Amino acid sequence: MEGRRIDLQDLLFGLFLMVVAAFTTAATWSLRVGTAANMGPGYMPRAIAVLVLAFGLFFVVRGLVAPFKGITPLQPRAVLFILLAVAAFALLVTTAGLMIASLVTIVIAGFASRETRPLETVLFGGAMAVGAVLLFVQALKLPVPVWPW
Amino acid sequence: MLRSFCLLAMAALAGATLQPSPAEAQQSFSRAVRIVVPYAPGGTSDILARLIAPKLQEEIGQAVVVENKPGGSGNIGADAVAKAAKDGHSLLLLDVGTLALAPSLFPDLTFDPQKDLAPVGMVMFAPYVLAVNPSVPAKTTGELVSYAKANPGKLAVANSGIGGMNHVTPVRIAKGLGIEWKNVPYRGGAAASRAVVSGESQVIFNGVTATMPFVKNKQLVGLAVSGPARLKAAPDLPTFAEAKLPAGDAGTWQGLMVTAGSPPELVARLDTALRKILAMPDIATKIEDLGGTVKADGPAAFRTWFAENVKMLGEVVRENGIKGE
Amino acid sequence: MDLFTNLALGLATAVEPINLLYCLIGVVIGTAIGVLPGIGPIPTVALLLPFTFGLEATSAFIMLAGIFYGAQYGGSTTAILVNVPGETSAVITCLDGHKMAQNGRAGPALAIAAISSFYAGTIATVVICLLSVPLSVLALKFTAVEYFSLLVLGLLAAVILAHGSVMKALAMVLLGLLLGLIGIDVSSGAARMTFGVAELGDGIDFVPVAMGMFGLGEIMANLERPPVRQVVSQKVRDLIPSLADLRAAFPAMTRGTLIGSILGVLPGGGAALPPFTAYAVEKKVSKNKAMFGHGAIEGVAAPEAANNAGAQTSFIPLLTLGIPANALMALMIGALMMHGIQPGPQIMTEQPQLVWGVIASMWVGNLMLLVINLPLVGIWVSMLKIPYRLLFPAIALLCCIGTYGIANSVFNIWLMLGCAVIGYFFIKVGAEPAPLLLGLVLGPQLEENFRRAMMLSDGDFTVFVQRPISATLLGVAALLILVLLSPTVFRKRKEALAE
């Protein structure tokens, strides 16, 4: 790949840092900065944001002039189902209870891999749900409903 | 398929209408009662709640569980109780002085402590001891005041965090006496104590149990104690009033609250149960071990106390521009 | 000699059958909750507190202490096996411990973690006996000025531990500092970057971030790279570390123990500094630097030793000054008060049996942990035989429950989800999350101490070089920057990476 430039890793990381710096500055705009001797709550966020911006610029420039380096291709399946599983748990745990939330989370997470066998996952999810309730609610007294009712 | 669904839906509807509405006053506790402690485990409120929970369980005949909901200076847990079902099954045990400060400190508060929460009863009052690092040339409160007047801005008062009684007290005293000192915030009372023992800051207002051991060990010099009377443990320390210090009511006030609008019968039962529990000698001993005294005031006195403090603390906060950032 | 009378009294107390029993209960509970991510020692101790009211104070305290250091043992197990750090201290163990497991050396990794912890626990017990008093004096010498300098040094150490680009590690530390700023500012009470979310008022908790970036991030990355995880599920025959392993690990353990013992005493340093610092030092002095981050046994031994030594010496300020070094010690003070014991500077003279009994019980408890944990290694490793298609949903579920459990907050689960997305992005762009976590943990303290030091000195920056301890620490930090940025080192690092 001689001749091709752009280190995608550096470039993306640099852009990310610049976005974070801009966002931080915007979010802390109304806070008092103060002086070095008597700092307000806005002093440190602003100072760090400037540094982050500098790093961001550094990586963007380095990424543009460096020899080509790609990033490994995204596999949306894994990412999507893991995130969906976590989201399902967040939505269900206090409403439908730990038992159902655990089962649903395991089953959805199972879709993230192509090797998953549906029946096995459902059975395993059921066992994990019972185990989680026994361990966390019965033994460790985690204050969370077990069932929706 | 559709038919069975319709049947189910009808059954559900019927079930819903058959259930008594909360307004129709349940006469007794129908399920587990929770005491929400809006701080991490291990603090005074948490210990009190865990002391009271098993006794309350015996009194009301239902399981009583303690639930820690820390965060947001106690406001997250308080909000959870304020917004809970108005059925008397959600209680809140917390530092009510801090709660009284919340409306003036946090303009975006998501609940109104006076409207959304109702008092069950005060539980405990723990006075503050005023102590200084031995490097401060003052053996009495009078000497401390004249030293502070002669050296404005030199003394640093350690407090256990912005927006607590412990932070407002030195502000009130400075204003009352016309002195000027730095208010240095720390993360919690223990960090503040350490700072004054090491001499990083010089003055502290803190609980009896946290402070007196250092005074006995001559690592701190005790000057005065808040509250109505001298301490049994340290009878030679004058009260704030005797030492001519303002803010004599300063200290930690712990109280039990319930969701506002809960059935009055149940609140009355909780009040009776709480008074009975606080009259038990073993509870009184444990509360003394925590550096306080039992305050079994009941809802009416609590309500008055709370309203007065919201007003008074609000004025302190406004006049001194605390949280003017 | 006084020391021996004290130790004899302590040992006699610790080996009383009733105390042995409670010590055993404590370390078993501790190990169990340490293995479970999210359920830390603090809620467990709080939960058990009421049950200890009926016990004698010494037994109660021995049990509660056992939970604390037992949890440090257990935490490393989860970190090594599935790359989920349940505690700050376990983040570092993830780096090389999990790599060892991926290389099929989970057994030796777990065994070395247990042996290092026992070794450190033994030495730390001696340190507590001999040096409590001078060390507590040192702890009081640390004011805001010294803390600031120590934290600067600690954050720079984070850069060493990254095995990728120095610049990326620095940028990650800064991102961590920014995350740490979220919440209500301790010095002014102003809410920063909370966007009206009350849950953010106390700042971002470490656990959701760590579980999102390490636990869930690792799962997503693993699912993308089939060959790597086949190694994880590989049957492990060698459970016992070889003689060569032990020889490599021993000096690392010793250095880790020393570092942990000193840093553990300083209140506020928290559980993060000792293992991070020990790892950084080890990476600098080790002969096979190239192995670090790829399964170096020293990279497990040193932080585990430092972690356990620090956990034990963090009792020193409590036992000698009555000042808690961390949130858990504050809880212990509550426990003492409930037993009618006034914690404070005179506790050592007034309650010698309690103090020395607890100290001696730590050594006894560490021995128990070693005996319990070494045979367990086989069982833990056999867990890796569970097919990954079942293991990863289970890990995801444990992350969810654990994250919810730290503050009973659904918000934290969403936070973990967000961190998983960002963590996935970091994996894609080759940025390591460990320095970010250190920044997140130390950032708030850095700012707090800096501003406090400035406030107390009326804005005089020279205080940082006027005080000897602070000046020394900053000197070391400056030296470190010079070494890091000198071109020769850059070249060396590149060579090392190329290998």
Q: What can be said about this structure in brief?
A:
Chain B has 325 residues and is α/β, with parallel strands linked by helices.
How would you describe this structure to a colleague?
The complex is a heterotrimer of chains A (149), B (325) and C (499). With 149 residues, chain A is mainly α. Chain A has 2 domains: 8-65; 76-139, no CATH class. Chain A has 5 helices and no strands. Chain A has helices at residues 8-27, 43-65, 76-92, 98-110, 118-139. The model of chain A has no long low-confidence stretch (mean pLDDT 87). Chain B is an alpha/beta fold and 325 residues long. Chain B folds into 2 domains: 31-125 and 251-319, Bordetella uptake gene, domain 1 (D-Maltodextrin-Binding Protein, domain 2); 127-225, Periplasmic binding protein-like II (D-Maltodextrin-Binding Protein, domain 2). In chain C, strands 1-2 form a two-stranded antiparallel sheet. The N and C termini of chain C lie far apart (55 Å). Chains A and C meet through helix 1, helix 2, helix 3, helix 4 and helix 5 of A and helix 8, helix 9, helix 18, helix 19 and helix 20 of C.
